[in-house]
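Internal ticket - ligand job 347, 6-O-phosphono-beta-D-fructofuranose:
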Amino acid sequence: MRIGILTGGGDAPGLNAAIRGAARRAFQKGFQVSGIRNGWAGLLGRGDVEDLTPTSVRGILPLGGTILGTSRTNPMKEKDGITRVVALLQANGVDGLVAIGGDDTLSVAAAMSDAGYPVVGVPKTIDNDLAVTEFCIGFDTAVGVVVEALDRLHTTASAHHRVMVVEVMGRDTGWVGMVGGLAGGADLIIIPEFSVSLDQVVEHLHRRRGEGKDFSIIVIAEGVRMPELEPAVAAAAAAEKRDAFGHIQLAKQGVGDALSTRIEDKTGFETRVTVLGHLQRGGSPTPVDRIWATRLGVAATDLLAAGRAGVIPIRQNGEVTIVSLREVIKETRRVPRELYELSGVFG
Ligand code: F6P
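stdout (structure tokens):
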């Protein structure tokens, strides 16, 4: 048997641990392994497929990024895209594919599965927004980066008695902001799931000053839409090109920058902005990301070996559980009110 491994969408720390897990299990079973280069792009045109060997996956556990490369290419936007992708895999003798990715990559995997090709997914996204699963590769590391940044920003904010606005990733959800903000002791966390007005932000800052707290740390998720920050943000959005999955680059909307400007205008408090950007996606994965990426990578190969397809191993109640690919992409998982309200205790 020969399995293929592909990583798609934005990179995330822990992808290499998953590649290693899937490949090493395959070698243990006497299978051959093909690495697909640059996500779905490597299965279009003439294809870009290489043999993976025990040597090629050696030493990659602690590495960020992905040794296979990635892209946001969407075969479903190409004429006969799914048929061509399947034909290329078959032409390379690949009997089943491990597709490691978020909702975009996994939606292509589900379409291939519907077309009858054996695909197993592995959940990856620093946004942590896949349904059902308690774990997505990269989220834990991204949160760690946010926490380290907030720890550092606290000392300089306190020294200068400033307001620090920190913009974090997360696309349309607030998981990175919420969990990172709570763990890093942010005073206010603004996420897409729960709206906050500029007046409420200003009131919050005045209240803190009134209580003798002469600095503040505000975390804002890149996907927040605050009417008072328009039109700057809306203009940036309108000018943006969409990728093949229909996403704009939310970072270019600059909500953090717009918020810090408005805060300074309205309060006169000295305010600075830090946009964490792709720092949240780079570097070495945490132990949690390494272990779970490894477990799920190994499980993915086991599923293909057992003739299971159209499924994805996920973490549920702390265990590896198998669900259908469609289940994890059926909706965007959002931050629940209970978690959000916890942040109100610490403002
Ligand atoms: O989906 C992961 C993510 O990092 C989002 O949080 C962010 O909006 C987006 O990808 C950034 O994408 P790119 O790498 O194309 O700038």
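Auto-summary: The first strand starts at residue 2 and ends at 7. The pocket of 6-O-phosphono-beta-D-fructofuranose is lined by residues 10, 125-127, 169-171, 222, 249-250, 281 (CB under 6 Å).
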